[in-house]
Amino acid sequence: MADYIKFLGTAGGRFVVATQQRYSAGTWLSLSGQNIMLDPGPGTLVRCWASRPKLDPRHLDAIIISHHHIDHCTDANVLVEAMTEGGYKRRGALFAPREALETDSPLCRYVQEFPERVVPLTEDGQYELGPVRFSTVAHQHSVETYGLIFESEGKRLGLLVDTAYFDELPDHYQGCDMLVINVVLANRDHPATTRHLSLWHAEQIIQQAQPNHTILTHFGMHVLQNKPWEIAGEMSERLGLDIQSARDGMKVEL
Ligand SMILES: [Zn+2]
What we know:
- The protein is an alpha/beta fold.
- It has a single domain (4-253), classed as 4-Layer Sandwich (Metallo-beta-lactamase, Chain A), CATH 3.60.15.
- The chain is 24% helix and 27% strand.
- The chain contains nine helices and 14 strands.
- The strands form two sheets. Strands 6-5-4-3-2-1-14 form a seven-stranded mixed β-sheet. Strands 7-8-9-10-11-12-13 form a seven-stranded mixed β-sheet, with helices on one face.
- The longest helix has 12 residues, at 228-239.
- The protein starts with a strand and ends with a strand.
């Protein structure tokens, strides 16, 4: 089967999550036959089964947490249980920053006993999952956070999760065939303490990194009010690159 990515949820920002204007479920990746759940926020288990066709979390090979903010990992516990058949079958892998594994995060300690492997993510780390390789990019967020670059079937997929903008950020994602960017903010002029990307920042990154295909997701309230599908279309025309905004349930082949 061809590699694909399915957005079970596209919510970013607390208000969008709280109101479920967009679902806050995670992103399902199918790469070289490996099933990977990235950042299972609230509702992920429900959206797996509501998906058409259904996605069975018992078939997951790995769960990856980019950081332990609640919209990225509240359903991790229940998905680890599903992946390991309630902890009775030691299988699969859980990847998460050390801070998420060792501090007071939503990831339960007892659940961490269930997977075959629990792997702390570190800066510039290199990881293997069957035939899939991926590496981390240290982001600047209020907790330990890593962006991810996957290599599968000769393609590179970058997942640029929550972060403040910093000058070297676009360089890390150069050479990606597809880039997924979390864009929480509409307006560039937010206090630095917000530590999220705006639409303006996303455009700078795309312009510098030049991915063949970009998908914007993880929308805050103001981005949604500004119709991200129209903004992505305009950006696409300005840059001459393929850019689209994610919808809940959207599946894209790599
Ligand atoms: Zn966050």
